[in-house]
Each structure stands twice: as C-alpha cells, then as structure tokens.
Task: structure prediction
Amino acid sequence: MINPKALIEGLTEEFSQNPLVLAFTLVGSQAREDSYKAAKYSDMEAYVITKDEDAEKLEKELPDLVKKFGKVLFSFKHQIGFVTVYDDLFRLELPVIKLSQLKSLFSRPEAQVVSVLIDRIEGELEKVLHSRPETIDYAQAFADKITNFWYWQILGVQYFKKGEIYNTRGILNIHASALIKLFELLNNPLILLLETNKRIEQSLTKEQLKLLKEVTPAYNSGQIKKSLEKVMDIFSETAKAIKEKYGYSYDENLESTVRPKLLDLLSV
Result:
C-alpha cells in the first residue's frame, strides 16, 4: 500500500538531489490540514518546477523515478501532465512546470494551500505565492454565471430540438456544475475560494442535492426535456435568493426575454 506521507518524503529527497529541479510543491487535499483534507481514495497532486529548457528532460526521468516507491500499474502524460497509478490504485499527479509558467500556475486564491517542499528559485516562488489574491469578486462571478447559464441553456434546448440527446446531457452537466457553485455561494462563499466541486455532499443541503438529481437525468429524452424545464426554475429561484441575501445584481431581463422563447421551443 502506498503511504502518501512516505511517498512525498521520498520524492522530496530524490528531487533535492536532482539539479534539474528548481522547486517542488505539494497541493490539493494532501497539503490541507483543515477543509477537504485527504481521505481514503484521495490522490496526490504535486508540481515539479524546472527551467523551460529542462522540462522535457526532467519529464523523461519521472517514469523510472516513481517506480522506486511502489509497483506501478501504468504512467502516462495526461492533459494536466505526468500521472502515475500504483498497484493499489493510488493516483499521483506530478506535472513538470516550466519556470515561465510559475505565475500562471499559482494564480488562484490563497485558500488553495501550497506546501513548498523545495525552493531554489531565490525568492521568486515565495513572491508569486504571496501575490495571490485573498478572495474573488463574488458579485461579478455570480453575474457571469447567470449570463453563462442562459447562453448554455439556449444551446441545450437547440441541441434537444435537433435530436442531439447526448450533447443535451452535456449541457445539463455544465448546468449542474454551475448550480453547485451558486449553491455554495448561497451557503458559504468561502467554499468557492477552493474552486472545487469535490465533496459537495458535505457542503450542500439535502434539498440542494435533490435538486441536482433533477437536472442530471439518464439518457432518456423525456427526462432530459423535464430537466431542461426544471433547471430554469432552479437557477431563477437560486439567483433571487443570492440577490436577496447579498444584494448582488444580475441581468434579470435575460430570464424574462429568453425563458419564454425556450419554453415555446420545448412545447412544440
């Protein structure tokens, strides 16, 4: 069995001896000690930072390196970077980051915990981490999500009318993700600073989870049509509740203009 603590200690020791490595950081649940901390089946996310010209060379070393810590089922380059899965199904995400990408990599709010294990960048890493925003513009994020909803809803209804059921379900998945963010904003804005839809069962109410089920249907045309209709009710009611609680504004004309047109399409 992979011991996450032993794994990170081993990687840190190996990277501390590798001249290609400028910095090594642990992020995600394994780095947290309070909310959303690692649990059974949690993966490990860490970044290895190197000079731009050394990135490819360092990445080629990782497949052999990770084998030192346990039996590897497979390793590959995912869209996020290098990934390994061990024999007990423990997942290790270990992307190699170019030094020029450092600022964009650590641009999320300070609530996103970063544990610095190796730092040879002479203060640049520390400077980037300290320059991260403390919070986000909740009012703007709220307004944007409502506008985005109506755009995707138009697309979803049009997909449905064309008989593209699979694509319509994809739009409903986008809606569910956005709806989770609105529920989190309504319940506790600080959750949004973690920028994650993980463990929603811990942060949403039973009623909110029930509503999510209503807009995440199986591959069934009738159920999908009902979800397209229901999701407009849920977004409308949630937007009004957020406005009432925080005073945030949004383009309310979108609903009165777009919704009747979509309902007409769905009724034909």
About this structure: The chain has two domains: 4-130, 138-267.
